[in-house]
Amino acid sequence: MLTSVRGWSALVLNALLAAAAATALAAEPQQVADLADLSIEELGNIQVTSVSKHAERLADAPASIFVITGEDIRRSGATRLAEALRLAPNLEVARASASSYAISARGFNNTIDNKLLVLIDGRTVYTPLFSGVFWDAQDVMLEDVERIEVISGPGAALWGANAVNGVINVITRRSPDTQGGYAYARSGSLERGYGARYGGTFGESGSYRVYGRSFDIFNTSTANGATASDGWSKGQVGFRTDWGTAANGFTLQGDAYRGSLDQVNLVVDQNTHSSGNNLLGRWNRDLAEWGQLQIQSYFDHTERDIPGNFAEHLNIFDIEFQHGLRPIGAHRLSWGGGYRHGDDHVTNSAVLAFLPADRRLRWSNVFAQDEIALEHNLRLTLGAKFESNYYTGTEPLPSARLAWKPDPQRLVWGAVSRAVRAPSRIDRDLFIPARPATAMTPATPGLDGGPDFVSEVVKVFEVGYRAEASPQATYSISVFHNIYDRLRSVEPVSATSIVLGNKMEGTGDGLEAWGSYQAARNWRLSAGAFFLKQRLRPKPDSADSNVSAAGNDPAHQWLLRSSFDLPDRTELDIGVRRVGALPNPGVPAYTAADIRIAWLLQHGLELSIVFIDSGHVESGNPATASEMASGAYAKLKWNF
Amino acid sequence: MTKLARACAFSVVIAAGILCPRPAQADAQADEYRVKAAFLYKFGGYVEWPDRSFARADSPVAIGVIGADALADELAQIVSGRNVNGRPVLVRKLRAGDPIAGLHVLFIGRVDRGRLAEILAAAKGQALLTVTESEEALELGSMINFVVVENKVRFDVAPPSESDNLRISTRLLGVARKVVSKSS
After folding, report:
1. Cα-Cα-Cα-Cα dihedral sign, residues B46, B52, B56, B57
2. pLDDT digit string, tens, across residues A552-598
3. Can you say whether residue B117 is alpha, beta or left, with left for phi > 0 and alpha for psi between -120 and 50 degrees?
4. Labelling A272: which of A91, A129, A288, A349 has CA 20 to 30 A away?
């Protein structure tokens, strides 16, 4: 089966490549050249299709969107994707150990968070094993990131199931924008790493980049000073090639990585191994009066072997298309569809089992969206996605969004949406301990996936306001009210058996706000905060006695950043964040800070020193969990 | 959906992409950024820079583009093999914060207002033609601002003052949608 899926995906990718090559050669440059030969008066009479409207959309989007720019990442000194996400005030990021993170938006934060959709250049990276992300496996070359769009709130009508409380969209720069090379090395008390990238061109309109990176993250310690033996190391290589332009071109990119993670295990003392590779092709075509078409396909292979627990080999094949039409009257339509195929193979242990060990998963979807200009400054966006999954069939995911722009500096928006978190393998196929019971685990109470587990559902009501108070100051504020139903609960069915059910419900209310202020030409300040009030309760027929374990969220958090350009090409960046106390398990509130000083030296050399002041547990039981230590590192980067 | 149905749907989409009719004439329709790129190239012919802006008689006209990579890509295609006032043309993609010294034309895409004001302030007095596509950009100091009116790309002009060290031909002012005088 595996080989046939692989063969099929290779076939489709080849077909895409051939089609793209054939059409790319056909037409475009001719037309561009024609335009340049027109007189300036004639140019003013050409009818245009507005792609830049799409670009403009981010600022005008009726949703709670925070954008982390590549420059923000560079100046933060973050060394991994999960660390860079700390820059988003609308995300909860708690590091649980040297390699694992709890990352979520609008609540339910834990290391197996399952209500966030994460995409890297259009590739969905959450695992169908538990609908969450292995953050040690999914990473990018941070230096080549264009921006990270962090959308808190539901994005299901566009992105599908799992975009329940947020979407993280990691977008790397096109290869024409990453020409030339750099190499860096950094070393410090918490980690060390090195990497390099080189970009060049080929043929008429082709460009490429290749990169490699490697790092070692040292062990963390617990509160009593004992080592957590959780250090890890990873190597990753990848490439990206682009032909043509963003609107009319083809992209082929891929990555391969391998990591080794120390683990303390009572049964065996062996490292966890994680590896994977992926290949993605994306084809954009400007169909002039027929609008804009995008077709994307990828293959993603991941492996994780946790000795003594389980091993998983997963192959994902995904293909999707999107078609945006030109406006027809007041209407601007877009539609699309996709198909996703997963072959999941688990090697079980006595501790836990996913049964059946091999599961073939399929998802398919169609979506349509209409953006209606009611007035010149009032837009209504109606959209719905219908997504079918292996476990529960077709789920409707509708949304309605209204945006009012009284003047160019202000936007008021509101939205009503329904989103679902479709079951993952952990909800249905999990058995702890493995069945049938072995001699080692005869009578311990077991935890089983629920054979009738269905999708968790949320209805979301949001309003927001974004404004440019002055040319120097912008801010955004949004509030939401989430109504949850059929949340995952833990139901005792006998003295020795617990089964996962859908008998929890509740609400989540919150406020997110952030802003930035250009205090002087060389001094930028930014701040952000969120407040969350979550009320979860078991349904009347539920026997779950620990609903607060569904997520461990602070009632509030805030962050401040200052970016200062000093004379003599010196940069000074300071970040401070405060995270409120977590209830269950109880983690005290903490404040952490980081400082980066960088000098741009001669000949493309850049030296930076980053200090991290922490020393707190961020996730887990404070008595036994890893403390995130204070430390520092120095980095030398050479651009050539 | 059966496998066959899926395969069929996929083939149709591919076929639609390849077979869709192309516009017969260039003047029928075009991508907005393609038209703006053509304008940007054309503007060079209507601007007089001081001689000291160029190191030599054959030094290129340097056009910088911030926050609109798609436009820069189109512009790069246009200028290859073409010239402005007998000079070759160089297109540079810039990031906010990159130095703008040595440029002759600077296009600033849809960046946020604070950043726009900052870039325009830095460009002042540099003998640099600034072109934008944001509402109220002329008030912030831009010289030419694109607007899309009834699906056509037009532009407003705020002619540079003495201190800008730059002159725009009156013929260009005649084509502009409107010409506003600078407040400062």
Report:
1. positive
2. 999 999 999 999 988 888 999 999 999 999 998 899 999 999 999 99
3. alpha
4. A91
User: Which bin fits A278, alpha (ψ -120 to 50), beta or left (φ > 0)?
Assistant: beta
Return the residue in A245, A386, A407 with the most chain B beta carbons within 10 A, the one to mutate for interface testing.
A245
**Which H/E stretch holds residue A159?**
helix A156-159
Residue B152 with chain A: CB contacts under 8 Å: 44-48
Torsion sign across C-alpha atoms A133, A138, A143, A147: negative
Of A454, A449, A531, the closest CA to residue A485 belongs to A454
Give B17's contacts in chain A (Cβ within 8 Å). 19, 23, 283, 285, 287, 293, 295
Nearest chain A residue (CA) to B25: A31
From A473, which residue of chain B is nearest by alpha-carbon distance? Answer: B114
Strands (E), B46-143: 47-48, 61-66, 83-84, 87-94, 105-108, 129-132
Contact A471 B113 (CB under 8 A): yes
**Cα(A110)–Cα(A491) distance, integer angstroms:** 20
Which of chain B's residues have a Cβ under 8 Å away from the Cβ of A176?
Answer: 69, 73, 93
Q: How far is CA A311 from the centre of its chain?
A: 24
Please tell me the predicted confidence (pLDDT) of residue B164. 83
Q: Can you state the angle between helices B32-43 and A52-60, rounded to 10 degrees?
A: 110
CB A420 within 8 A of CB A456: yes
Q: How far apart, in whole angstroms, are the C-alpha atoms of residue A213 and residue A197? A: 9
Nearest CA in chain B to A206: B73
| Cα separation of the two ends of chain B | 66
Q: Which run of H or E residues covers position A172? A: strand A166-172
Q: Is A512 helix (H, G, I), strand (E, B) or coil?
A: strand
Q: Do B74 and A15 touch (CB under 8 A)?
A: no
Which positions ≥6 away from A344 have C-beta within 8 Å?
A128, A129, A312, A313, A314, A354, A358, A359, A360, A361, A425
User: How close is the nearest chain B Cα to the Cα of A603, in Å?
Assistant: 16
- Token representation of residue A54: 């799409």
Interchain proximity B73–A40, CB inside 8 Å: no
Consecutive H or E run containing A295: strand A292-306
Contact, A276 vs A300, CB < 8 A? yes
Query: Would you identify the CATH topology of the domain B31-179?
Result: Rossmann fold (3.40.50)
Q: Is A11 helix (H, G, I), strand (E, B) or coil?
A: helix
More confident residue, A189 or B8: A189
pTM comes to 0.76
Domains of chain A listed by start with CATH number = 18-639 (2.40.170.20)
Closest-approach residue (CA) in chain B for A289: B29
Highest mean pLDDT: which range of A9-13, A539-543, B176-180: A539-543
CA A404 to centroid of chain Cα atoms: 28
DSSP characters for B1-46? Answer: --HHHHHHHHHHHHHHHHHSPPPSSTTTEEEHHHHHHHHHHHHGGG
Neighboring chain B residues of A175 at a CB cutoff of 8 Å: none
Residues in chain A with CB shorter than 8 Å from the CB of B151 are 47-48, 50
Q: Are A422 and A389 in contact (CB under 8 A)?
A: yes
pLDDT at A640 over 80: yes
Which residue among B35, B73, B113 sits closest to A246, beta carbon to beta carbon? Answer: B73
- Phi, psi at residue A8, to the nearest 5°? -65, -45
Say yes or no for a CB contact (<8 Å) between A38 and B31: no
The backbone torsions φ and ψ at residue A585, rounded to the nearest 5 degrees and listed phi first, read -70, 150
Instruction: Tell me how many degrees the CA angle A69-A71-A77 measures, rounded to the nearest 5.
Output: 110
Question: Is the CB of A471 less than 8 angstroms away from the CB of B95?
Answer: no
Q: Tens digits of per-residue pLDDT, A498-532?
A: 899 999 999 999 999 999 988 887 888 999 999 99
